[in-house]
Design brief:
The protein is an all-alpha fold. The protein is built from three helices and no strands. It has one domain.
């Protein structure tokens, strides 16, 4: 029989393991949750954090690319304007 763990308890368990250096075995005994379940949560959390980090890096790269492209467009418009004035 599986039991639902509410999000608050899950967060508390993950916080104790990740930030308070409580062992998975100790947390398992304290909160009556299997070590396998806790390890699955930890893996999922790490994957989500990795995705978030990669996504933020990609957003920063895209913003930089946008700035570079806007600068190129501005320079091209200025050059076109100079060419038109010479004619």
């Amino acid at each position: 029989m599986s039991k639902e763990i509410n999000q608050e308890l899950k967060s508390k368990i993950l916080n104790s393991v990740r930030n308070e250096w409580v062992s998975v075995i100790q947390a398992s005994k304290e909160y009556w949750v299997s070590t396998i379940t806790i390890y699955k949560w930890l893996k999922k959390y790490e994957l989500e954090e990795t995705w978030k980090t990669n996504s933020l890096q990609e957003i920063k790269r895209l913003k930089k690319d946008k700035e570079d492209l806007l600068l190129i467009i501005w320079e091209m418009q200025a050059e076109l304007s100079r060419i038109k004035k010479k004619r």
